[in-house]
Amino acid sequence: MVQTLSIAGYLAVKEVWRNRGRFLLVSLVIALITLLVLFIAALGEGLGNGNREYISKLNAELIVYQAKSDYLIAASRLGRDRLAAVRRVEGVADAGMLGTSSANLVLPGNVPALKVALLGVEPGHTGEPPVVEGRQLVTGLAQEVLIDSNTAYRSKLKVGDSVTLRVTQGTKDEFYELRIVGITAGQQYSLQPSIFAPFFTWDRIRPKSEAEVNISNPIANVILVKLEDGAQVDVVSQRLVQQVNNVETATLNTAIQALPGYSAQQSTLNTQGGFTLFIGILVIGGFFQIQILQKVAQIGVLKAIGTANHIVAAASVIQIVVITVIGVAIGALLSFLFSLTFPPTVPIVFNGTTSALAVVALLLIGPLGGLVSIRYAVRIEPLKALGLSS
Question: What is the pTM of this model?
Answer without folding.
Answer: 0.79
